[in-house]
Amino acid sequence: MFKKILLVLLALIAAFVIYVALQPDAYKVERSVTVAAPAAKVFENVNNLRKWEAWSPWAKLDPNAKVMFQGPEAGNGAAMSWDGNDNVGAGKMTIVESDPDKAVNIKVTFTRPFEGGTNSDFSFTPKGDQTEVAWAMHGTHSFVEKAFCVVFGGLGMMGKDIDKGLSQLKAVAEQS
Fold this sequence. Notes:
Layout: H1 2-22, E1 26-35, H2 39-47, E2 66-70, E3 79-83, E4 90-99, E5 103-112, E6 116-127, E7 130-140, H3 143-152, H4 154-175
Helix pairs in contact: 2-4, 3-4
């Protein structure tokens, strides 16, 4: 009986490993929102990392996180490092491309609770007196990261965070 249970357990583990291995390495999660504000106003809230505290979906997860800014205040080369509790971990984000009122591309590197990274891209498309803001996070996953996504629904969580951030960005941009 013990051997049968062990064989079933090994078969389940093997099936899980095969399933995870067959998942694509590349991922992309994208959401968008329409903001009742000009592209320039929305852009400035993304292009200046110091303004992220007002709308970032992660800022309130640890109000005591240590945040440091490097480089210029906004645009290419602007960077923000953080070191917080287990909810936010530690890492750095750097603006690698900034096209005024059109796009901001950011490289994000995580150092805790795990090492990894992603690309975070924003685009701003004028629609009359409104702006469509698209936020995409994309990159590649290691086997362990793919397993995490399968078990914990990581891409779904990422999508929820993006939705929350866009909703908060919309509120901030429409207020001022």
